[in-house]
Amino acid sequence: MHSAPPYCLEVNPIERLWKEVKKFLKNRVFNSLDFLRRILANILAGFSQKDIASITGYDFILEALSVVGL
Question: What Gene3D superfamilies is this protein classified in (predicted)?
Answer without folding.
Answer: Ribonuclease H-like superfamily/Ribonuclease H
